[in-house]
Amino acid sequence: MPRPNPRDPETDPGAALGESLRDLRTDAGFRTQEDFAKATGYARESISRAETGDSLPGSDMLNDWLDACDATLRERKLIDRQYKLARKARGPIPQYFEVYVSREKKAVFVRLWGLDLIPGPLQTYEYAYAMFIAVGMDEEEAAAKAAARVERGSVMDGPDAAQVTAVIHERALRTLVGTPDIMAAQMAHLLMRARQRSVIIQVVPDTGYFIGMEGAFQIISGPAFPDTVDLETVEDQVTDEPAAVSRVAALFEEIRSHALNAKESQSLLTEAERWNSQQQQAPAGESPATAATAPDRV
Fold this sequence. Notes:
This protein is an alpha/beta fold. The protein contains 11 helices and 6 strands. It has a 6-stranded mixed β-sheet, with helices on both faces. Strand 5 (225-232) and strand 6 (237-239) form a beta hairpin. The two termini are 34 Å apart.
């Protein structure tokens, strides 16, 4: 038996959307969430969270859901209207990620691993906005998420700034997000952060496959909460389970062993800033986009 949903579709737009998505799934012949997971490639847990309203599906997941259920034009319009209402009610931070963001504000130590993209707290507004636009968000949603992402960077500011160690793969420095000008400004921002005493940025040279290629992640630590990890894999996951955190922390140190030292990394960032500044703008009529898949959160 499925567990009762504590959310009320009458008062929670996210729960109302989830109820409609569940009805759409069952009407399409997918009797169980497991069946639907196999058909769409999404984790059953993600489908469950969407149907209960615990978290809103990303735009890609929503479109895949509608396609898998052969939704009619009328059904698509109804779902789209509910999705916009739910998104407006929830704000730019997905519910599953709220606990991470609230703890991040109190963090004393932050460890970041960026593979294809610059880690969230180190992104400029323009970089984040272009990234969210590239994955299909409308301008209003992209602007709200970009602003929330920049706000996360405040953990590095002020007299009580967290000690941040960021390890970034070299390909993230050259993956085009938006325009070359946006990329050059992003590199300048990284250099500015790297000059802060509380921030260490190290770059892993692109020499082929190594242990860190499985996905990006971030770890936050502090006396007010248990060490917490955000894993940016196929399905984002936030956990403070001690064994999982220990494994990720050990992986971070192993990844860091492949990185250049801070001084060498700053030289590479300077080179990347220059390289991006020299790139041609996209031809007229073409929309610059990111070559990586942006996470549908802040």
